[in-house]
Write a structure and sequence with these properties.
It contains 16 helices and 15 strands. With 432 residues, it is of the alpha/beta class. Strands 1-5-6-11-10-9-7-8 form an eight-stranded mixed beta sheet. Strands 13-12-14-15 form a four-stranded mixed beta sheet, covered by helices on one side.
């Protein structure tokens, strides 16, 4: 058995950062009406293979095995992606109750690393808005992703916006061979545009594709001008997509939400059918380690899931089920938070609360005091052991709680960075 040289443990500080991410995420989800669910870590393999939800390279990295049931069993996987499992949950449990559902999750994903030696584990916070076809649902998703990051202090973030189906349609219109189409799309994902130029040398209207890939815009007006060149019967199939993309950019312009249009953003998730976006910590898309958030629209996936689960006949589904979502890349965010705190002063020391009377009333008083301090933005620790005076300097304040001896239930034994008189006035009596 190979040793995992890079364990996926989170340190104490990393867990603290993760909880802050989770808190900011769930707060924004509640504001926009998303309900949290949990889907199983182990999922059926066929919801990823039969639906074509992942690229071949990611399918090869899935951790799959047989879940034995007697003499026969089903092949299952450690969940590599949440969107398919959330859509499955929706199809099995929620569709008959209400077509439109806004769901969120905090889950782990697993897949073999690129080297094939270790299992990689990722933590994601994500949302799925299922059943809403409106452009404003796209805007809501983009806004929520960038707003959560802003709430966590990421002032230097960069939104890259694309519409992969437009690029795929143009490639299909220019190239007849499906094998060559896939090769060109792979080169576009790698941003190797010189290779694309070489492969399309002599192809009529190939310059239109190259222009889309090489030019980066940041307004709806720019996008309109670009699309003016895409005229002709071979492009009629993407006129609606063009209009929607322009509308999305127009909304973002009005909201003063900066972005960069980048048609080379195709990604590894083949189920995206509409707009796609990624939010980076840097102004370029050179490294996936800089992705803070990613998402997009996938209107085909839910319908295909219903067919796979043999539910389409019962529901007489004949149209797409509009769906859009995003995921925060927790480990990337944590890494950048750690980098941003290097060389900075530590947070103010927290408050120690010594429960000197071991009685239920004092215990409750101490807990009430800790809760009030937390609500005020302080961190605190309850302890049953006396704190030596030599250790007082490790804390911003030391408070002793005794329900019977002290007026109000507590007294300050020590304070350094906190004004005890002001704090005492704010906290008031904690004796229930």
């Amino acid at each position: 058995m190979k040793t995992n040289k890079k364990p996926n443990d989170l340190t104490i500080q990393e867990v603290d950062y993760f909880r802050s991410i989770e808190s900011a995420f769930l707060k924004r989800c509640r504001q926009f009406g998303y309900n949290e669910i949990k889907t199983g870590t182990i999922q059926s393999l066929h919801i990823y293979t039969a639906l074509g939800t992942l690229s071949p390279s990611r399918l090869r990295r899935m951790y799959s095995f047989i879940d034995w049931d007697g003499w026969s069993g089903e092949r299952v996987v450690l969940k590599p992606d949440s969107s398919p499992s959330v859509v499955r949950f929706y199809a099995e449990n929620l569709f008959e109750k209400q077509d439109h559902q806004k769901l969120c999750y905090v889950e782990n994903h697993f897949e073999w690393s690129d080297t094939g030696e270790n299992i990689s584990e990722r933590w994601q916070c994500g949302v799925e808005n299922i059943g809403d076809p409106s452009v404003t649902s796209d805007i809501e998703i983009i806004f929520m992703g960038q707003d959560i990051l802003e709430d966590m202090g990421f002032s230097n973030r960069h939104i890259f916006l694309a519409y992969p189906s437009i690029i795929r349609h143009i490639v299909q219109a220019l190239v007849f061979s499906k094998d060559q189409q896939q090769v060109i799309l792979d080169e576009i994902k790698k941003q190797r545009f010189d290779q694309v130029k070489s492969m399309l040398s002599g192809v009529d209207k190939a310059s239109l594709l190259i222009r889309l890939l090489e030019t980066k815009g940041n307004t709806a007006s720019y996008l309109k001008n670009i699309f003016e060149s895409l005229k002709g019967p071979e492009f009629e199939g993407i006129y609606d997509d063009m209009k929607r993309f322009v509308s999305i950019c127009d909304y973002l312009d009005r909201m003063e939400c900066p972005y960069t249009i980048d048609f080379s953003l195709i990604g590894n998730l083949d189920y995206y059918t509409g707009m796609q976006f990624q939010i980076f910590s840097k102004s370029t898309r050179k490294s996936n380690a800089d992705i803070l958030c990613a998402g997009g629209r996938y209107d085909q996936l839910a319908l295909e899931m219903f067919k796979l689960l043999n539910k389409s006949a019962d529901q007489t589904l004949s149209t797409l089920i509009p769906s859009v979502g995003f995921a925060l890349y927790a480990k990337n965010i944590i890494r950048h938070m750690l980098l941003n705190t290097q060389g900075k002063k530590d947070d103010p020391p927290h408050i120690a609360i010594y429960l000197s009377q071991l009685a239920p009333s004092s215990m409750k008083s101490g807990q009430r005091l800790s809760d009030r301090l937390t609500d005020m933005g302080f961190s605190s620790t309850l302890t049953l052991k006396p704190i030596e005076q030599d250790d007082y300097a490790h804390y911003g304040a030391v408070i002793e709680v005794d329900h019977e001896r002290f007026q109000g239930g507590y007294q300050f034994l020590y304070e350094r960075s906190i004004n005890k008189y002001i704090l005492n006035y704010i906290l008031g009596d904690i004796n229930g």
